[in-house]
Amino acid sequence: MSQLTSATLAPEPAASREEPKAPVSAWYALGVLIVATLLSFVDREILSLVAEPMRRALHLNDTQLGVLQGLGMVFFAGLAALPIAWVADRYGRRTVLTVSVLIWSAATAACGLARDFDELFAALVFLGIGQAGLSPVVFGLIPQLFPARQRVLANAIYSMVATLGAALGLIAGGPMVSGIDAARPLLPDALHGMEAWRLGFVLVALPGPVIALLVALMRLSRQAPDEAVQAEEGAAPGAQQISIFEWSRDHWRTVAGLFGSIGLVSFGFNAIGAWSPIVAARNFGATPAEVGQGLGLTMAVGTILGGVLVSPVARWLTPRYHLATPLRVIEFGLLIALPLCLVLTWTTSSAQMFTVICLQVAPVTIGTMLFNTAMQDICPDYLRSRVLAVGLVVGLVFSTASPIAVGLISDAFNPAPKALMWAMAIVAAVGLGTGTALMRWSEDAFVRTVRTFANHPAVGD
Description:
Layout: H1 14-17, H2 24-49, H3 51-58, H4 62-91, H5 93-113, H6 117-132, H7 134-145, H8 148-178, H9 180-183, H10 196-205, H11 208-216, H12 227-232, H13 244-250, H14 252-284, H15 288-321, H16 325-344, H17 350-377, H18 384-413, H19 419-441, H20 443-453
Helix pairs in contact: 2-5, 2-7, 2-8, 2-10, 2-11, 4-5, 4-6, 4-18, 5-6, 5-7, 5-10, 5-11, 7-8, 7-18, 8-15, 8-17, 14-15, 14-17, 14-18, 14-19, 14-20, 15-16, 15-17, 16-17, 16-19, 18-19
C-alpha cells in the first residue's frame, strides 16, 4: 500500500526528505490502539446483545431501552468529545486514552451491577463519556507514531478496523454471551450466582485494565524536534501556539468546507444506513436474519474493497492534483456513489439493494480513510484531537437529523408504494451532492492550509 499523505507533497527542508521508517514500536502501538478500539465496540455492543433479559430483570419498557442507548450513550458521548479532546491535546493523548479505557471498562462492569434504570443509565453515561474521545485521540496519536510517508497506511488500517468494529463487536460478543452458562463452573465462586446478562457486562470489562496498561506503555517515536531548541533558549514549550478559535478564523474556508462536508456526507449516507434495513423488510419482505446478514456482508465487503483501493487511487491521482489529492479522491468517490442513490429506487429485491449499497460503500470508504489524513494535515499537532473531535460532533449532529428527514419525506409521498425508497434516495443524494460541492469549493483553501502546517513539529507525550 502506498505511503502517501498530503503533507508529504509540501515543500520540506532537504534534511527531512529522507524520513526514516516507523520503528517496530510504532506498529506495536498501532496494534494496541486497534485492540483498544475493538474492546470499545464489544463493551458497547454487549448492551444490545443482553437487552431482552436485562429488560425483564430490571422491569424496563421499550422507551427506557431507547433512552439508555440514545440519550445514555450517544448524547453524552457527543457532549464529552470536545472537552476530552482539549485535555488530550493539552496534557497528553496517551495519558487521556489510558484513563478513558479504565473509565469505560469500569462503567461496563457497573452496568452488570446496576439494580434499576437510574443506576444503569448513570453507568451508560460514563461508558459513553469514556469512549467519547477514542477516535479523535487515536487519530491524534497516529502522527506521533508514524512519519508522514507511512501515515496513510496506518490511518487506512485503523479506519478499516474502526469501520468494521461494530460487526466485529457483535461477532465477538455474541458467542461469549451464548457461552456464559457453559463457562460458569470455570469462574470464581463470587460470580457463580450472577445472572448471565450481568456476567456478560463484567466479563467484557475484565480486559480493560490490561489494555490500559498497554496503552500507557506505548512509545511515541515522533517527538518534537524543536522542543530541545526551545529549552536551550529558555523559551516555554508551545510559546507561540494559537487557539482553536484563531485557527478557525485564519482558515475559515477550509474549516467550513471540510466540516460542512463531513456533516452533509454523514447526513446523506446515514439515510441509507438507517433506513435500508426497513426498506428491505417493508418492500422486499426480508426477515431480520436476512437483513442482518445482507447488510453486514455489504458493509464488510465494501469497506475491505475501499481499503484495498485507497492507496492505488491516491497514487494514481497524486501527479496531477498534488496537495489536493486527498480531497479529489474523496470528491470522485462521492461522485461515484451519488448516481447510485437513484439506482437504489430501481432495485426489486433486498439482494439487489444491498449490492448497490456495497458499490457505494467502497468509494465512500476510500474517501473516509483519506479524510482522516486530510484532517491531520490542516492543523498544528497541539490542536489535532480537538479538530478531529469537532468533526466527530458535526457528523453526529447531521446523522441524527438524517433519519427524521427521510421519515418526513416518506410521509409526504405516502401512499406511493416506493415512498420510503424514494425518500431515502433523495436525502442520500442531497447529502452526498452538496457535500461534494462544498468540498470542491474549499479545495484551494485546503491546499494553503496544508502548506501552512506541513512542517509543524509534533509534540511529545
